[in-house]
What we know:
The structure holds two protein chains of two kinds.
Chain A: E1 3-5, E2 10-14, E3 19-21, E4 24-26, E5 31-38, E6 44-50, E7 56-58, E8 64-68, E9 73-78, E10 87-95, E11 102-103, E12 107-112
Parallel strand pairs in A: 2-12
Antiparallel strand pairs in A: 1-4, 3-9, 5-6, 5-10, 7-8, 8-9, 10-11, 10-12
Chain B: E1 4-7, E2 10-13, E3 19-25, E4 31-38, E5 42-51, E6 54-57, E7 65-70, E8 73-78, E9 87-94, E10 102-103, E11 107-111
Parallel strand pairs in B: 2-11
Antiparallel strand pairs in B: 1-3, 3-8, 4-5, 4-9, 5-6, 7-8, 9-10, 9-11
Amino acid sequence: TQTVSQSDAHVTVFEGDSVELRCNYSYGGSIYLSWYIQHHGHGLQFLLKYYSGNPVVQGVNGFEAEFSKSDSSFHLRKASVHWSDSAVYFCAVSSNSGTYQRFGTGTKLQVVP
Amino acid sequence: DMKVTQMPRYLIKRMGENVLLECGQDMSHETMYWYRQDPGLGLQLIYISYDVDSNSEGDIPKGYRVSRKKREHFSLILDSAKTNQTSVYFCASSLSGPETLYFGSGTRLTVL
């Protein structure tokens, strides 16, 4: 069974700072890894995903994530955050054999203006 | 228009009442999902549907059932709601299993 963990429940940074949101997974086979964003009162929206190839994937709004097989990680980064990036971010993992995505518990990012 | 629509947005029910949550999508996606979201637990999968009348249990199916009679429509039913089913319920769809999920805006259900 694949699992995904997000060790930081809350992260607070100032506008213009860089940020890294951490995601670690546990699975032995080929997997899809994704990040989603949830603004308050809304559903989740897709940010980016990795399946194979270049381990650094680019997403919308300046977000990128890097896959590391050795660390079993898929951390999300942004070089310079804006107050509108304040939201909850979810990491998700699924196998490529057609099973569903499992989500982490989420990291609430607060950007202070 | 690539949209997942959930109705209603807010719902208050008494313990023991039946609850029907509805979800529609306009993308002709094969796969649809029902998740619930609780603080500190993230999203937990209740049921997954691979197509019409092809439904499978997720991680927490107890107390729930689903119905999918048309590809674009997926319902979640709570027969005799319980207070511990108070939660925010999200419907999602995808082209196939591990592909990008498209989520609805959620239904906040309160069971008193």
